[in-house]
Amino acid sequence: MFNDSKGSLFATFVLSIIFGILLVFATETFLVTINYVLVSIFLILGVVQLISFFMNKSYKHEIYNNLIVGIICIWSALFIYVYYGSLIFLLPVILSLYAFVVGAITLTKFLRNKIVPYVVISILSFIIGVLLLFKPALTVTIYLQITGVYIIITSLVYLFEFFQIKKNLK
Q1: SS3 call for 147
Q2: Contact at 8 Å (CB) between 132 and 157?
Q3: pTM of structure
C-alpha cells in the first residue's frame, strides 16, 4: 500500500513547498491571481450554464436548475470581483482554522511517536492560528508570508518522516 501511494505523497510534499514559497515571495501577486482565477471560473461556469439553459429550452419544461446555477455563478464572480478586499480578510481566518487542525494532528503524532519536531510544529501551528484569528486585519501579507514559511517547514518535516518510513520498510 505504501509503495502505491508514495508518488502521490511525494507530489503533495512538493506542491506544499511550492505553495509555501509562493506565499513567502509573491503574496500580493498570488492573492490577485487567485482572485482573478476565481472570478474567471465562476463567470465561465455561469455563462455556460445560462447558454445550456437557453439552448436546451429547459424553461419550457420548468426545469430551472441551469438558470439558477448560472445566475448564482455570475453573481459569485461579481461578488468576488467587487469585494476582493473583504475576501482577503477572510483568508487569515480560514488559514487559522487550517493551522489549528494541523496543530492538533501534529500534537497527536507527538503524543504517539514522541518525535520532537512534531511538538514544535504543533506549538507553531497554534501560535499562528491564534495570531491569524485575532489580528486578521493586521498586515495580511506578513501573516501569509509567515504561513508560507510554516508550510515549507512542516512539509520538510513530513518529507523527512516519509523517507524514514520508506527506509524502515526496506
Answers
A1: helix
A2: no
A3: 0.48
